Amino acid sequence: MYSVVTVLAMDQEAFQDTKKDNTVLELLQMIAGCRVLWGCWDHPWPVLKAGKNIDSLIHKYQDIDWRKQANWGCNGGINPTGELYFDGMTLGPYDVLFVKLKRLMLEGRTPGTTTALRYQNWMAAADKKMQDVTSNAYVTDAESIRAPKIALLRGRGPVCWDAAFYLEHNPDLPQGGVSTAGQAWEHYVGNGQFEGRASRFTCDPYKA
Question: pLDDT digits over 69-92, tens only?
């Protein structure tokens, strides 16, 4: 079964508008009965039909007039909960209260599921007064965390990467023996990208 969890908050006036729509009530009953549902989520529609507006927890979509149908094709018409589906990013706790997290999703160790799991573990530990503020997965699991980003840069290669810019804006590197373009690239791949050092690509190598 595939399910999507949606949370709505509404005042009494909006709730009364929603109750007048039998389609929405049937939809909510189907969800409560754990039946498989294919289709769109229609519960905000009665509120909009009544001339009222709704708002979103997602920062990008706040203060939008959803009564205008021109805004209904938001996010390019795709569900923002997929990995990188949200304007090239993954939804996180800054934008939503709940992030979809399933056991099989954890197998892929995508950034979105990893972030959700971290927050879940932190909150569970806080509830038990067992927070471990000294722990850091980057220290204990450094290789598996670093490997995907290193592989990505290896695949991308130094084409369009500005070695002169990197050396100029990281003056400690020449002092430490990193002086050639090749040495600068290797430093950036293995360390600099994780240290947040100033760097840039002058073009998109995938389109070059």
Answer: 888 888 898 888 778 888 998 887
